[in-house]
Amino acid sequence: MHTQPAPTPTHCPYCALQCGMQLTPDAAGEGVAVTGRADFPVNRGALCGKGQSAAAVLSRGVRLTGPLVRDPGTGRLAPATWEAALDAIAGGLARTRALHGADACGVFGGGGLTNEKAYALGKFARIVLGTSQIDYNGRFCMSSAAAAGQRAFGLDRGLPFPLEDLPRTGCVILVGSNLAETMPPALRYLTELKANGGKLIVIDPRRTRTAEQADLHLAPRPGTDLALALGMLHLLVAEGRTDEAYIRERTRGWAEARAGVMAHWPEYVERVTGVPVPRLRAAVGLFADAETAMVLTARGPEQQSKGTDTVGAWINLALATGRPGTPLSGYGCLTGQGNGQGGREHGQKADQLPGYRKLTDPAARAHVAEVWGVDPAALPGPGRSAYELLDALGGEIRSLLLMGSNPVVSAPRAAHVEERLRSLDFLAVADVVLSETAELADVVLPVTQWAEETGTVTNLEGRVLLRRRAITAPPGVRSDLEVLHELTARLSPGLEKGFPVEPEEVFDELRRASAGGPADYAGISYERLAADGGEGVFWPCPATDGPGTPRLFLDRFATEDGRARFVPVAHRAAAEEPDAEYPVYLTTGRVVAQYQSGAQTRRVDELNKAAPGPFVELHPRLAARLGVVEGDEVAVVSRRGRAVAPARVVGTIRVDTVFMPFHWGGAGRVNAVTNPALDPVSRMPEFKVCAVRVERVG
Ligand SMILES: Nc1nc2c(c(=O)[nH]1)N[C@H]1C(S)=C(S)[C@@H](COP(=O)(O)OP(=O)(O)OC[C@H]3O[C@@H](n4cnc5c(=O)[nH]c(N)nc54)[C@H](O)[C@@H]3O)O[C@H]1N2
Ligand SMILES: Nc1nc2c(c(=O)[nH]1)N[C@H]1C(S)=C(S)[C@@H](COP(=O)(O)OP(=O)(O)OC[C@H]3O[C@@H](n4cnc5c(=O)[nH]c(N)nc54)[C@H](O)[C@@H]3O)O[C@H]1N2
Ligand code: SF4
Ligand SMILES: [Mo]
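Above: the input record for the complex with iron/sulfur cluster. Below: its predicted structure, written as tokens.
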């Protein structure tokens, strides 16, 4: 087997920080040693335990090494050849299309896929299958922040500034981010902020490891961030601390937004959020006193059925104090998945074409159709959002191709989603491991992993990075790009030339497709990414001889008139509030040692040792009321289902709230309980708040 002798600089397979790492192949050429790359500015050599142990998933014991096809006799998945597996998928999709029409074929992608894969997957859905029914797990992730950013600034890029700006600002409000556990190397930026005299405010119903770093921690009821932001804005107005010159010169819509906060008296906001008035005032003081300041949101305020308006309210607060588009200040969203940013720009989203273009925009359709060599009229329109697509499986959607997600564990109302997946005529899953979702498939394709393939990803700062192949994949494994090429050759012979298997060729086409769009990659080439010292290039970057754009909006916003928009928003209750039958709030999230649905990290011994299984975090007073002590098995029950896990009794959570991580399937699957109520704009499900009953088991 051929291996590259020298260490290869690349990036982590997991979260959106995309820490730089160095891979050194072992003697057998089957594994790699991982070390942090000190020359990469985002992590400067630091890695969390997941990144450190990522190579374990490359080993043969835990990964898929050959295709599997369900045997009609035994009903079990059995080894098959690639030819047989690809023929079966092409046959399944073609049958569905012939019987029920193109829109009966669904495609589901992921924010972990490289830009090249996300691009090819969207193109495959639209021009090979001809279906409008494609969406991806990023809908569950940052779609509310993306929608709010579009509305306010005319553009969505997670952070409009590099992380290196963070320690030099005066005050950071971190809304619903537990980055000490979800992006550990980024904690350094907060430590440096404080060392420089900057203030940190953390807003989270739990006193997390991140909140422990804060100068001020506010612990609102889950789902009430919108009222909290309006309450802070009310106080700013009342105290005359808004930036009127900035508002006049750089924004529109202030009068209406201002009128909307007048009813949000501090005492009212205290009643809604549970945050005492003096603490609300203290937060306003810290934020308004700071010369420069940032508001950063993550999944806490975003994964709500009003996530778009909630982020809108935080953006309004930032705008009213003159922050966005000024140095060392602004609003940003901490994107989550490895390619959460790029994954939302290049066409695997239901309403979108590459370059962050809109599928409904005739000029965008014409541009992309020309690059793809098809008639613009042949491009389907927008399809269903992720949860709606999963909910339609077995109904209007009869066959599904899934690449890069494990919705049996990660989708809201997961037992229902699992039942929908089982009711399909045909399910194909491409994955690196046999995930809970792959277990349900008719055909499973084993694909190459990060260390075995080259591709680009765009991190949470909008920094486009080159991930390089360091080792050769095992023989039975092929890349996602090869899968799409082979399926195209079977479904639409001739079109496969438009689906090259070389990532660089795909990227060069992506550059042309994105040229002139909001997320313009035209000036970014593999050559440039390899030669730039590995620091990456920030989009938009229209010209090969021009720089990228680390800082957005300094001169103007991306709206037609260059001004940001205040959007008037009003607080509303969560889709499901506690009542006599279901008296407690459930919120959900992550722990440091597991990643997402756990499909990859639950296969790594040292991570399992650190985080062996699910748990229910509850306050000692709630525990006492329920007669529960540490370690007791408790059931968390909602109108949709139940999850059972041991109790963790902690003083760091609100008395009215329990918390569960979502990394496990089986009896402890918290998504059996969560509410699929959707945000009307972003179609984001309400992962962060629903009403439950907690019971001692046995
Ligand atoms: N270890 C680890 N790291 C990861 C991931 C992982 O699975 N594991 N996933 C990656 C991905 S894809 C993502 S999206 C990011 C997510 O990163 P984060 O957003 O930091 O992660 P979460 O734990 O989902 O949520 C953050 C916090 O929101 C709080 N919260 C709950 N409800 C509310 C609410 O109503 N309001 C507010 N203000 N806060 C609330 C929770 O208590 C939690 O501490 O992490 C990335 N990094
Ligand atoms: N209750 C609750 N539920 C949540 C959340 C929450 O906070 N609370 N957060 C939501 C969020 S933010 C997210 S992002 C989702 C994530 O949830 P999922 O979409 O399930 O994400 P992963 O577990 O990362 O699944 C990725 C799958 O793709 C595989 N894979 C990895 N790389 C590749 C590749 O290159 N090609 C292919 N073909 N497969 C690959 C992995 O092995 C894994 O099986 O979960 C959401 N669900
Ligand atoms: S913080 Fe994220 S990118 Fe960095 S090593 Fe950990 S999982 Fe990988
Ligand atoms: Mo995410």
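Notes for the reader.
The chain has four domains: 8-58, 68-140+339-538, 143-334, 584-696.
The chain has a mean pLDDT of 97.
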